Amino acid sequence: MSQPGAPVLPARYQVMERQEETRDTVTLWLRPVDEPIPENLPGQFTMMYAPGIGEVPISISGTGPDSGLVQTVRAVGAVTRALCSCTPGKMIGVRGPYGTDWDVASAAGDDLLIVAGGIGLAPLRGALLAALEHRERYHRVVVLAGARSPEELVFARELGGWRGDGAEVTVTVDQAAAGWTGDVGVVTQLIGRADIDSARTTALICGPEVMMRLTARELRALGVPAARIRVSVERNMRCGVAECGHCQLGRLLLCRDGPVISYEAAMPLLAIREL
Ligand SMILES: Cc1cc2nc3c(=O)[nH]c(=O)nc-3n(C[C@H](O)[C@H](O)[C@H](O)COP(=O)(O)OP(=O)(O)OC[C@H]3O[C@@H](n4cnc5c(N)ncnc54)[C@H](O)[C@@H]3O)c2cc1C
Question: Among 43, 66, 126, 157, which residue's CB has the most CB atoms within a 10 Å radius?
Answer without folding.
Answer: 43
